[in-house]
Structures are given as C-alpha cells and as structure tokens.
Amino acid sequence: MRQRVWATWVAAIFVGTLLLGLLGSASLPLDSHEVRPALAASGMLRTGDWIVPRANGDLRLEKPPMGPWLMAISHRALGGSDDERIGALAARLPSIFAAAGLALCAMGLCRVAYIEMRSAVVAGVVTGVSVGSLQFSHSARPEMVYAFFCALMLLSALMLVQPRSEKQRWGTLIICAIGMSIALAGALLTKGPFLPLMLLLGAAIGLIIRGRRFVALRWLPSIVLGFSGLGLWVWLVTQHMPDALEYWRHEMFDRTGGASGGSWTRLFEGYYLYATLPLIAPWFVLIPAGVINPWKREVEEDEQSASGSAIGDRSLRMALWWSVAMPMFLLSFSDGRHTYYMLPALVAIGALGAGEGIGDFLRPGRKPEVRGSLAHRLITIHGAIFVTLAIGLAVAVILMSSERGVSAAERWAALALVLVGGAFSVAALWRHTLGLRWVMLALSCWCVLASAAISRIAWSVKRHQRWEFAEQATAFIPSPGRLVARGVDPWLFAYVSDQVVGRVNDEELAAMAQEGAEFAAIISVPRADLPVAGRVAIQTPPDSEDGAMALVVYGPATSAPP
C-alpha cells in the first residue's frame, strides 16, 4: 500500500510540475539567449551534422551539444519538419521535462536521506514550485537540463553508498552505477564538468566527516564512464576542428565566467549565500533548519536499518549539506556572478529544507512539542510570507491593464486564489502539528497562483518590445538582401528573420554602403551617426527599455541620411 501511495505522489508531482512548465511556454517569445541553442538545433536538422553545433553561420562550441540535441528531438516529436524554425515550445520542452525530473530527484534525495515518505513529498513540491524551477523551466537555456542531470547524478551517487542488505546490494549497485554514469555524461554534454565535480566533491567530504572514508570509491567507475561519453564527443569534434581544444581551454579558463584565480576577498563577499535564496523562494525560510540541524542533532545515532525504522542515515544528510556548501565555496573564487550557477544544488536545498525544516511536523511517531521551536517559527514566518506574496502577486494581476492580455476573469481568479490560499495557510499555522493535507493544500494554492504569475507577470516588457521590433524589422529587409547588426546583439534577429545576421563595425558598414548593394542594418540609435546615407525603415521609441534601435536600409535608391 505504501508503494502505491508513493507512486501516486510521484506521478502527481511529475504531472503537476510538467503542467506548470507548459503554462505560457508556447506563447512567451524567446529571448536573445534562448535563440542561440534553438538556432544550433535548427542547423543540426538542416545540415544533418549533429556533432559540431553551428548557429548564425558560426561554430558554436562554447556549449556542448546536449541542449540543441534535445531541442531538435522535441521539434521532431511535435511534428516539425527539418526546414521549419524551432518553435518556442519545442525549444523549452527539454527544460520543462527537466524541471519535472528535478522535483522527482528532490523526492528521491529526501527519501534516501530521511526515509519518511511525507517529507519527501514536501521536498518534491517545494522544489517543483520554487521560483528557480518556475523561472528556468520557462527558459530554453540549458540551465534546467544541466540541473536535472546533476541532480540525478547526485541521487544515484548517494544511492550507491546507501547502507542496504546483502540480498539487495549488487543489483541495486549496478543500476545506480549505470544511472550515475549516464547522468554525469548528460551533465558534461550539457554545460561541462565544473558543477558535477563540485557536487561530488562536497558529497565525498560529507561522507568522510561521518567516518565513511573509502565508500565514495564506488563512484570511480561511473565517473570514468561519464567522462568517456564527453571524451567521445570531444574526439569527434577534433576530427573536424583540430583547434577545438585550444578554443575550449580559452572558454573555460581565460574568460571571466570560468576564471577561478580570484582572491580570498571574494569569499567574504558572500555572493552565493544570498544569491541562492531567490532560487528556493518562497520557501527560503526553511533553509536555516536545513543548515543548522544536520550539525545540531548530535544526540541522534545512525540507526539506519533495512526496514527503514530510523529517520535515515546521517552521513547521507551530511553529504547533502556539503553538496550545497562546496559549490558555494568554490564558485566564490570565480569571476562569474550568476545565480543560476547554484541551480544544480536546488534539489539538495529542497531535500534538506523539507527533511529538517518541517519533517518533525509530518513524521509519524515523532510528535514533539513544536510551539516555540525553530521549525515552528520557520513555518510561521513562511505562512506570513506566503500570504504576503500571494496578495502582492494577485494585486499585480488585478491591476494589470487589459492591453497586457489579462482578462477580468483572470483577475478575479487571482483574487479567489489569494483568499483560498490564505485560508489554508492560516488553518495550517493554527494547528499544534501540521497534517500533510494542510501543507499540501497550502503548497497547491501557491503552485496555482505562481503559475498564473509566471505566465503573466514575470516576463518583462523589454522582452516583448525586443521581439515585436525584430518581427516588424524583418518585414522591411530587402528581398533578396543581407541583414547585418552594428552595436546590437544579432541572435534574435537571426532567429526571427531565419537568415545569417553578421556583426559589423563602422568601417565595415561604410564599405558595404559604398559598394551600392542593397542591404539592411540593425543599429543602436545612440551610435547612429552614420558616415554614409541610409533610410530608417523602422525605429523603436527613444525611451525604450532595451535602448533605441533602428533598421536602416541601404542601397542605390537611398540617399537621405537617417
């Protein structure tokens, strides 16, 4: 019966997270970062070259090909032809499924470390409807796919070192080892080795601290196999491009995003201590318990047994703790400062927060006096924040004008969700102990409300302005004609126009105009003191959020300066 209940929760959380990711993903325009892997996927479908990614006429080797591979597969699965442009839904579908898988990985990590099913269910929901999951499941960038592969690798790694009976041992070990190698290879082929190695190093330190010094050696075969998958792709690429290794060395160590030779003062800036919080919002009030309790509960012995009568193996919980701390520590020395670097650690944060923060409320047979405890105070704060955020989001939806596409029915629905969600939260907070049904009702209300907000509010006006300008500008491109960009990111225009958009400087633009050929140029208006004649076909307003841009058409018939 417990297995059936567990399977039901797994299916419900997977489908629910999947639906959240699908909401708004087809209608939201791609931004200039999302179109890059989409263009690479389109190039793979049209040329048949699945080894060396190409986009906008250039090689795209700064990222491994897993993202474009999955986009191309999604495009074909949705019935698209090889000559069609990769649509927004096909581009984001890998991230949507990865977000659903990320929630399941959080459930698995909490189940492995804490045994109790109810805490694992909360971990899955908390992770699935966190701001980080909602934001990056609606993005075609490879961050969510990378996070999923890293999380699956960490889950498989902890299952490899989980104590179990001899009759369960070898079959489970083989399955976990294969899963770890596949997940590691997927992560390496999505964004590279840095975060997976940081997670494994942190988990190994946690095991060593708990006296399990050599158990992490079980990971070595999977690590070797995982890197073999990356090595095979690297070898295939070098057959086409002998200079690829030097290019990758420059990308990983010379550019700011991967540089790691920073001073110790960066560590005291604490960037990733506060930058990680938005990823788990609005559940970040659970983090203190997840941070403190694994070190505080010294009186609890590791009584893990095959029957699962204990509350889990504390060495695994310590491995989770260090798998969060180690990326924070090592990334602090990098010149790169991006919140999404910590996205692969979101599952460990969710598992620790659920298992330590509210696990005592939900765990059968453990009914402590919770009033005044750290966990009770955190839950109370969370309830207040939940209601505040719900009201704020609902007010934003209600006050949005009809021009933004929000109907009166949606505004009233948002108000109803606030009332219902607030009522459930208050009902849960007034109880001495929290029943799972109250927690799940409150989380479900936030889930529905956040899904409405993520599809209507979170997307900035800037993105829509940029997309609308790109579509309008494409209509003025001479046919046949060439499109270039000066002082403007060309990727979005290459995607919308479905042609190569080259970058040019002032001298190159002047030379092209003097040749007399008809072409169009996307330029940044503040730099538009053009040295040659041209005709402004379309221009964004001077007060545009993205900065004023203009499409200037050049050719024999153009003589008026812009």
Summary keywords:
mainly alpha, two-stranded antiparallel sheet, 24 helices, disordered C terminus
Topology record:
Layout lengths: L1 H21 L12 H13 L6 E2 L2 E2 L6 H12 L10 H27 L2 H12 L2 H7 L5 H18 L5 H23 L5 H16 L10 H21 L3 H11 L10 H5 L1 H5 L1 H4 L6 H10 L17 H18 L14 H12 L1 H4 L11 H26 L8 H22 L6 H21 L4 H14 L7 E5 L4 H7 L3 E3 L2 H10 L3 E6 L10 E5 L9 E6 L8
Parallel strand pairs: 3-4, 3-5
Antiparallel strand pairs: 1-2, 5-7, 6-7
Helix pairs in contact: 1-4, 1-5, 2-3, 2-23, 3-4, 4-5, 4-6, 4-7, 4-16, 4-17, 5-17, 5-21, 7-8, 7-9, 8-10, 9-16, 15-16, 15-17, 16-17, 19-20, 19-21, 20-21, 22-23
Q: What do these coordinates show?
A:
With 562 residues, the protein is mostly helical. Helices cover 60% and strands 5% of the residues. The chain has 24 helices and seven strands. It has helices at 2-22, 35-47, 66-77, 88-114, 117-128, 131-137, 143-160, 166-188, 194-209, 220-240, 244-254, 265-269, 271-275, 277-280, 287-296, 314-331, 346-357, 359-362, 374-399, 408-429, 436-456, 461-474, 491-497, 506-515, and strands at 54-55, 58-59, 482-486, 501-503, 519-524, 535-539, 549-554. The strands form two sheets. It has a five-stranded mixed β-sheet, sandwiched between helices. Strands 1-2 form a two-stranded antiparallel sheet. Helix 5 packs parallel to helix 21 (436-456), helix 8 (166-188) runs parallel beside helix 10 (220-240) and helix 9 packs across helix 16. Residues 256-261, 298-310, 366-370 and 558-562 have low confidence and may be disordered.
